[in-house]
Amino acid sequence: MKTGIIFDLDGTLWDSSAAVSESWNEALASIGVDKYTMTVDRIRGYMGQTMEAIAYDFFNEETHEEAMRLLNICADHENEYIRAHGGVLYDGLEDTLKKLKAEGYFLSVVSNCQAGYIEAFLEYHKLESYFDDTENYGRTGMEKEENIKLVVERNALDKAYYVGDTLGDYNSTMKVGLNFIHASYGFGQVPDATAVLKSITELPEVMKGLE
Question: What is this structure's pTM?
Answer without folding.
Answer: 0.94
